[in-house]
Design brief:
It is a single chain. By secondary structure, the protein is α+β, with helices and mostly antiparallel strands. The chain has two domains: 100 residues, no CATH class; 78 residues, no CATH class. It has six helices and eight strands. Strands 1, 2, 3, 4 and 5 form a five-stranded antiparallel beta sheet that branches. A three-stranded antiparallel beta sheet has the order 6-7-8, with helices on both faces. A hairpin with a 2-residue loop joins strand 1 and strand 2. Helix 1 packs antiparallel against helix 2, helix 1 packs across helix 3 and helix 3 crosses helix 6.
């Protein structure tokens, strides 16, 4: 057991994920451990979301030790932000996860946070690849416009086509992948045809490198 001596010092304790925590800080004096130093504790808790109060409680005989608060509060607010629990669930979690040490809660939320971060990193990586690919496509299209060539994308490959007959432009541009396969095979087998000829083909990165 220990004794609380009240400082009644209310202050902002933590802020993250659009949530801000306020509380009253007091001191906890241990009576059963002679050599254990006094510890900071929080005896009230108020949580706001974007300035609107969503939770407020005086903890009474319970208290939150500062060490456990610091270890748990970021995970606690992350859980509120992601799961949007009601006041009853928040109250239960305050008692179970903040007033008491709950390593399982921190472990589970930590895993969820790491998974979310990994997914965000992968999304950012894919988006960066797409942006770079689009830059390369734009570069190739500018080259085609300058050299009077037709740009045609086929899955991950691009074809730069010289038109001898302008009437076939729309047919090539509007061809779906299956239709283009036939046109491509015809141009490959008959490079001396009088309609169109492939002058360059390859994946986007290779073509962009060649024309740079």
């Amino acid at each position: 057991m220990g004794l609380l001596y009240l400082k009644n010092e209310k202050k902002q304790l933590y802020s993250a994920y659009g949530l801000t925590v306020y509380g009253r800080q007091d001191r906890y004096e241990w009576t059963i451990y002679n050599n254990k130093p006094d510890e900071n504790v929080y005896t009230s808790l108020r949580i706001e979301r974007n300035g609107e109060e969503i939770y407020n409680r005086n903890l009474g005989n319970r208290c939150i030790f500062e060490e456990n608060f610091n270890r748990t509060i970021d995970n606690f607010l992350w859980w509120i932000d992601k799961d949007n629990p009601d006041t009853y669930d928040i109250d239960n979690a305050v008692i179970k996860d903040l007033c008491e040490t709950n390593s399982l809660f921190n472990h589970l939320i930590g895993n969820r946070k790491r998974k979310e971060q990994a997914e965000a990193n992968e999304k950012a990586r894919v988006e960066a690849i797409r942006e770079e690919e689009q830059k390369q496509i734009d570069l190739i299209k500018q080259y085609c416009e300058k050299k009077n060539l037709l740009f045609k994308q086929y899955y991950e490959k691009v074809y730069l086509i010289k038109l001898h007959n302008k009437d076939v432009r729309q047919m090539i541009e509007n061809a779906d992948n299956k239709q283009f396969e036939g046109l491509r095979d015809f141009m490959d087998k008959h490079p001396d045809n009088k309609d169109a000829v492939i002058v360059m083909d390859g994946n986007i990165e290779d073509i962009a490198r060649q024309i740079a």
